[in-house]
Amino acid sequence: MSAALDSFAQLADSNKLAILGDMLELGDVAFDEHHKILSICEAKKIHCITIGQEFGRLNSPAHFESTEALINDGLLDRVENTTILLKGSRGIGLERLIPFL
């Protein structure tokens, strides 16, 4: 995920949003790895929405417990003219967001 964020940060588009789902199956390093991802976003000034329990443990400012919760919130209806990165474990189901983007 950090490599994807590094590449995303280099895009010339100034209006970017990363929608990040939990990285599942990290075991004992899950907390530290999710914290690292949020730190990368902060350092690279990437606005992000996080989804899942692991990111939830970190009090991410724009966080949803599930993909469905983000869909039901209606937040995606207000996202326009934005380059979006969707990245997360397959189990989070971020592909369900595509019709709403």
Q: What's the layout of helices and strands?
A:
Blueprint: H1 2-10, E1 16-21, H2 30-43, E2 47-51, H3 53-56, E3 63-64, H4 67-73, E4 83-87
Parallel strand pairs: 1-2, 1-4, 2-3
Gist?
By secondary structure, this protein is α/β, with parallel strands linked by helices. It is 34% helix and 18% strand.
Structure notes:
This protein is 34% helix and 18% strand. It has four helices and four strands, in the order αβαβαβαβ. The protein is an alpha/beta fold and 101 residues long. It has one domain: Mur ligase, C-terminal domain (Protein-Tyrosine Phosphatase, Chain A), CATH 3.90.190.20. It is globular, with a radius of gyration of 13 Å.
Write a concise keyword list for the protein shown above.
Protein-Tyrosine Phosphatase, Chain A, four-stranded parallel beta sheet, 4 helices, globular
- CATH level-1 class: Alpha Beta
Number of DSSP helical runs: 4
**Strand arrangement across the biggest beta sheet:** 3-2-1-4
* The CATH homologous superfamily: Mur ligase, C-terminal domain
Low-confidence stretches: none
Q: How would you characterize the largest beta sheet?
A: 4 strands, parallel
Number of strands: 4
Q: Tally the structural domains.
A: 1
How much of the sequence is in beta strands? 15-25%
What would the CATH topology be?
Answer: Protein-Tyrosine Phosphatase, Chain A
- Distance separating the two termini: 21 Å
Instruction: Spell the H/E element sequence.
Output: HEHEHEHE
Structural class: alpha/beta
Helix content range of the residues, please?
A: 25-40%
From the alpha-carbon coordinates, what is the Rg to the nearest angstrom? Answer: 13 Å
Query: What is the architecture at the second tier of CATH?
Result: Alpha-Beta Complex
- Residue-averaged pLDDT: 95
